[in-house]
UniProtKB/TrEMBL annotation:
Annotated Pfam families: HTH_31
Protein's UniProt name: Helix-turn-helix domain-containing protein
Highest rank taxon of the organism: Bacteria
Length: 66
């Protein structure tokens, strides 16, 4: 994935481990990388925006399980 997106391996690792948030542009890039249709991309972006505050911290109850 790092090669396809141009991201560093450490960024990919942090995303995969849930140690950092994903920007809207990163979300779109990932969704397209996995051949998601535009409806799915828009839904993922909306869910991402709804789950995070502007300060970069998850809203209560929006943290990923696990």
């Amino acid at each position: 994935m790092a090669a396809e997106t141009g991201w560093s391996l450490s960024k990919v690792w942090r995303i995969e481990q849930g140690q950092c948030g994903v920007s809207v542009s990163d979300m779109r890039c990932l969704a397209r990388l996995y051949d998601a249709d535009e409806v799915t991309v828009d839904r993922l972006v909306a869910e991402s925006r709804a789950g995070w505050t502007k300060g970069g911290r998850p809203r209560k109850g929006s943290e990923p399980a696990g």
